[in-house]
Design a protein that fits this description.
By secondary structure, this protein is α+β, with helices and mostly antiparallel strands. The chain is built from 14 helices and 23 strands. Helix 2 links the parallel strand 1 and strand 2.
Length: 482
């Protein structure tokens, strides 16, 4: 069963010993971050701060901060289980039924898919309290790091619509609180929310926005997922939770939000007004630079009675966002394999902060195959931001970064096996000479063939014989080694 709301997830965390309640008073300015950073670096539990200075709302943080809790948030034993569900759906799409019997066989699966569509309900607990004279000061918004420009809302589901076709977009974009009624809207140019904003600007009209906090964790994750532009994030959330998302209409804007959210902030982004937003201690482990961004004006805040404020911090890994990225890596691997069947596995190491490094293993079948994979990946959606792509053979475990680096340091001739190109980069890449644009490197760490210009014999990896491995395994207890 799907979580009805954030509270059911909190209860589950507590039952599993994955939540620590803290009742001593804490300051949302820096103190909560220091506590959470220390806990996350030690792979500790989710934290519920119940006595936050200046606010009546408890603060939930680090709720997704381990692989176990990420699995729990999406109600699976293993994130690869979701990947298998996606593969099953793609099999339906790829195999057109050839007979009436085939059509009958897939009907239950198609019916299940149709049941994931979000549905409108008349009322929701997210609107138990309606404040049309709103103040963001009532929210325990964190100032995370000493060099931050102010307080930032860091775990929002930001809802907007395409003015041309009315399609919904849900993304996760940080919001710097400027004052009680305005925030920055950190829309990067590559984001779909920013595209909706630009279309409205061309019309000279404001962009209506709703910001939801909380609800089923599957909805929060869906807001971070790198979905194709025309895929509704709430349909994807319905697929993850195996139940449609219930929505209520907002009070002051023409948008719908999850009925069981904790807090909803309604308003609009002006088509002309821009303000300096940032710096902000970002997931790269560095401060992202200040720049001009659109301004979000708050018209209304609704929330549950006794609302809980969910948030996160980002910074030098490991942090909570590393496990959201892990979910993306595992869940979207089938889509990558669908387009590139030779791919065996993929890993986005946390040291690469999502977009700086991709490790991929392949079944190599022709000269230059690794370069073909690099070029293909750079042409696929948000993979265009990958600053380093490392390709290894199928027998290399890309989940083991040490093993991959062993192959890189020993299998690579720098002149022959590296490819440097120029193209788009994430705006947070401070090393690039220009914003949004710079160079990227592909590294071919596969075994080289003579057809690739390697005229020497390639040595074999050192491996023990299977019979000796089995013998030692059988006799292990006799050796008296702990």
């Amino acid at each position: 069963m799907a979580y009805k709301d954030l509270r059911e997830f909190i209860d589950r965390l507590e039952q599993e010993g994955e939540l620590k309640r803290i009742d001593v008073e804490v300051d949302p300015e820096l103190e909560i971050t220091q506590i959470t950073d220390r806990v996350s670096k030690n792979y500790g539990p989710a934290l519920l701060f119940e006595n936050v200075k200046g606010s009546d709302m408890p603060v939930l943080i680090n709720a997704y901060g381990s692989e176990k809790r990420m699995n729990m948030s999406l109600q699976v034993k293993n994130l690869d289980d979701i990947a298998q569900d996606i593969m099953d759906i793609m099999e339906i799409a790829d195999n057109v039924p050839k007979s009436m019997l085939d059509k009958v066989k897939i009907l239950p699966r198609l019916a299940q898919l149709s049941s994931f569509m979000p549905r409108i309900v008349k009322s929701g607990v997210c609107q138990e309290v309606v404040d049309k004279n709103p103040s963001l000061d009532k929210l325990p918004v964190l100032k995370c790091w000493p060099g931050d420009a102010g307080r930032f809302i860091t775990l929002p589901q930001v809802y907007s619509k395409d003015p041309e076709n009315g399609k919904r977009n849900v993304g996760m974009y940080r919001l710097q609180v400027f004052d009680a009624q305005t925030t920055g809207m950190h829309w990067h140019m590559h984001h779909d929310g920013a595209s909706n904003y630009r279309k409205n600007c061309d019309r000279g009209q404001p962009t209506e926005v709703a910001v939801a906090l909380g609800g089923d964790p599957a909805i929060t994750y869906a807001a971070t997922a790198p979905l194709p532009k025309d895929i509704d994030e709430l349909i994807f959330a319905g697929f993850l939770r195996k139940q449609p998302v219930d929505l209520v209409r907002c009070k002051t804007v023409d948008l719908e939000v999850p009925a069981d959210a904790e807090i909803v902030i309604e308003g609009y982004v002006d088509p002309v007004e821009r303000r300096i937003e940032g710096p902000f201690g970002d997931h790269t482990g560095y401060y992202s630079l200040a720049d001009e961004y659109p301004v979000f004006h708050v018209k209304c805040i609704t929330h549950r009675k006794n609302a809980i404020y969910p948030t996160t911090i980002v910074g030098k890994p490991p942090q909570e966002d590393c496990y959201l990225a892990l979910a993306t890596e595992r869940i979207f691997l089938p889509l990558l394999k669908f387009q590139l069947p030779e791919v065996v596995d993929m890993h986005l190491p946390m040291e690469g902060v999502f977009h700086n490094c991709v490790l991929v293993s392949i079944r190599k079948s022709f000269p230059g195959h690794a370069r073909k994979i690099m070029s293909s990946l750079w042409g696929m959606g948000q993979m265009m931001f990958a600053k380093f792509i490392v390709v290894v053979d199928e027998d290399v475990n890309v989940q083991n970064t040490s093993e991959v680096m062993w192959k890189v340091f020993n299998n690579v001739d720098p002149h022959r096996d590296t490819m440097i190109i120029e193209g788009p980069l994430d705006v947070l890449d401070h090393s690039a000479p220009l914003p949004y644009y710079g160079s990227k490197m592909g590294i071919d760490a596969t075994k080289k063939w003579r057809a690739e210009g390697h005229n020497r014999e390639w040595p074999e990896d050192i491996r023990m014989s299977e019979d000796i491995i089995a013998l030692v395994e059988k006799k292990w207890s006799e050796y008296g080694i702990d």
